[in-house]
Amino acid sequence: MASEIVMFVRAERNEMALLRIGDLMNHNGYLSGRWGDRLPKKSKDSLFRAQGLLRSMHQLLGAAGDPGPDDKARLARSCQEVSEILSLEQGLATKAAGVGNG
Q: pLDDT higher for 101 or 82?
């Protein structure tokens, strides 16, 4: 889903990018809330970082005007990092919950 944000920004569809960011913020909150007590501090810190990156992206795209080339490059890097964090932490949360171990 994070890669879709970059695609929407490149296509100048910031409203769709904002919706995707909101979806990822909700997903991140779900991971933190659902499995937070089973995750190590490093995982909690990673999820907190992802939430901060998503918040920054939301603020940037919610501001008036289209993002410039530097902002678009920063958005792409942030999306990649968020994608990596959420993939890793979802896997760790699933493992911590014992899903599929039976």
A: 82
Phi, psi (rounded to 5 degrees) for 65: 90, 165
Q: What is the dihedral of CA 35, 32, 27, 80, to 10 degrees?
A: -110
Dist. CA 63–CA 50, nearest whole Å: 20
| Cα 4 from chain centre | 11
- 3-state class of 101 per DSSP? coil
Instruction: Give how far the C-alpha of residue 34 lies from the chain's centroid of Cα atoms, to the nearest Å.
Output: 16
Which of 84, 82, 21 has the alpha carbon at shortest distance from 13? 21
Confidence grade of residue 2 (pLDDT, cut at 50, 70, 90): confident
Q: Which pLDDT tens digit goes with each residue over 35-67?
A: 878 888 999 999 999 999 999 999 999 887 788
